[in-house]
Amino acid sequence: MPQAQVLDGKAIAAEIIERIGQQISSKPDQTPPGLAVVLVGDNPASQVYVRNKQRACTRAGLHSELIRLAADSTQAELLATIDQLNARDDIHGILVQLPLPDQMDEHQVTERIAAHKDVDGFHPHNIGRLLLRRPALRPCTPKGVMTLLQRTGIALPGRDAVIVGQSNIVGRPMMLELLLAGCTPTLCHSKTQQLAEKVRAADIVVAAVGIPRFIPGDWVKAGAVVIDVGINRLPDGSLCGDVDYATACQSAAWITPVPGGVGPMTVASLLQNTVQAAQ
Predict the structure, then answer these.
(1) Are 31-114 and 140-262 the same fold in CATH?
(2) To which H or E segment does residue 224 belong?
(3) What CA–CA distance (Å, rounded) separates 240 from 262?
(4) What confidence tens digit (pLDDT) does each residue in 140-150 have?
(5) What are the 10-residue block averages of pLDDT along the chain, 279 residues in total?
(6) Which of 141, 182, 185, 199 has its CA 20 to 30 A from that of 78?
(7) Helical spans, DSSP H, in 73-202
(8) Nearest-CA neighbor of 273 among 123, 51, 155, 152?
(9) What does the alpha-carbon distance between residue 134 and residue 265 come to, in Å, rounded to a whole number?
(10) DSSP reduced 3-state for 2
(11) What distances in angstroms separate CA 149 from CA 70, 167, 262, one per listed residue?
């Protein structure tokens, strides 16, 4: 039987969204926070993510708009759309759903969003603030992970944390979040040597590599907290994370399920950022 306690991201996210809803409904005379989501093309996974975000906005009482652009839209058309949203007073947060079609420059798009409306937290201004220990709008997935870690009740200062995966969306800002919390983070990637030994020494493991069951359970130290950011679809249609959940449960103290762990927390963090941007 699994010994690990499950960090139920779905339940925690629902609490956060309900709290935001109460906050908004208590001020009926105020304009609700507004989120604009820009979806370019018809990537099936992106459509699912966007639908989840819109449903969460509706539950919380946020104003949300979906702007669809064709897959063959130009970079100039997308930038013009962002400029229009930057200028609108009723839109407090702007999110351009990634990935973008090949003809578009993701970095230029991210930097075109006004920093105070960048609810994804990817703008260089917001990443820079996090680096300087003065966070403003924080990247949603790492922010959601930090909320999960706080729910364990474990004191974070001094803990050794290992992040597997160095993406701009998760790995790198995750390192900064853990550093800000007083942990000693190690960021591992494809060139890292002795990865198993590094993971085995970690009090906190954040897996964000995008490879099914990449981290076997015997890499997890007894009593460690395992946060699985990965969501991978297997040939039979089922979903699994980057960690071998069944075996990791035997040694971890806390673990996130896939699905129902980090994913809902990312959406809840997006709503928190939108409320913060409106304020």
Answers:
(1) yes
(2) none
(3) 12
(4) 999 999 999 99
(5) 87 98 94 97 92 96 97 97 98 96 96 98 98 98 98 98 97 98 98 98 98 98 98 94 97 98 98 97
(6) 141
(7) 75-87, 106-112, 124-131, 140-151, 171-180, 195-200
(8) 123
(9) 22
(10) coil
(11) 39, 20, 11
For the whole model, what pTM was predicted? 0.96
- Joined together, the tokens standing for residue 228 give 């699985």
- What are the CA-CA distances from residue 275 to residues 32, 33, 38, 139, 256 (Å)? 9, 6, 18, 14, 26
Tell me the C-alpha distance between 117 and 34, whole Å.
10
Beta strand spans in the chain (E): 5-6, 34-40, 63-69, 93-96, 160-164, 184-188, 204-207, 225-228, 232-233, 239-240, 254-255
What are the tokens at 218?
């015997």
Query: Active-site positions?
Result: 53, 97, 120
Kindly state the DSSP code that residue 31 receives in the 8-state scheme: P
31-114 belongs to which CATH class?
alpha beta
3-state helix, strand, coil in the chain (%, to 5): 40, 15, 40
Q: What is the rounded CA–CA span in Å between residue 119 and residue 53?
A: 12
Look up residue 185 and give its DSSP letter.
E
Residue extents of the structural domains in the chain: 31-114, 140-262
